[in-house]
Structure formats: C-alpha cells, structure tokens
Amino acid sequence: MATGLARSVHNLVTTPFKILVLDCDNTLWQGTAGEDGSDGITLTPANIRLQQWAVDLRAKGILLCLASKNDPDTVAEVFATRTDMPLRPEHIAAQAVSWEDNPVEIAEVRAACPEVLALTLPLFGGRG
Predict the structure, then answer these.
(1) CATH fold for the domain made of 16-118
(2) How much is the pTM?
C-alpha cells in the first residue's frame, strides 16, 4: 500500500515527459558504428531492453528522437541492416545526428525543457 501511495504522490508532483531523446553508440548498441560498422556493433540484453522500453513508450504517446555525435549515413545503415533491433526507423520522430552534439547540450535541454527525459547512459550499469 505504501508503494502505491508513493507512486500516486510522485505522479501528482512530477511532470510526465513527452519526448525521449536517445544516443546511438554505446547506448542503443555497444560499440562505435563508424569504427565497427553495422556488423561490428553488438546488442546486449540491456541495449535490447532499452530499445524495447523506448518502443513501449512510443506506444503510449511519447515521441522518440535521436541525438548522436555520429555520421548520419552510418546510423541509417545500422538501422537498415540490423533488423534484430526492436527500435526501427519508423519509431523515430526526429533526429539530430551529426558531429555537433555533446553532453553540455543534453544538460541545456534538461534545464530548458523539463518535459523532455534526457538520460546520460550507461543507465543499466554497463552489464548485459
């Protein structure tokens, strides 16, 4: 009963997020797509759980976006060739994939847009 009450209070005092922005390398998959190629990156159970969680959130109305310091063509190749990923291109509402993204920008998004969930990973402790 205490857990239920705590969840109810938490839901009343927090703003639900509307957008989830995800990074690619070492977040959606392990490895660096630009160096390892789409065949060289790996999907750990934690990566698959994260991707499935994102897909589940999308089904609840959360917009999914990518923000990654990466080459756009390389990321597109990963999504095109790695059909074993739960997260698919059609799930992504918008993306900013270039060499311009950095952690400072993530902090700026958190400060300016509290309704956006901006996570810095590893969230799952780096274990599969």
Answers:
(1) Rossmann fold (3.40.50)
(2) 0.74
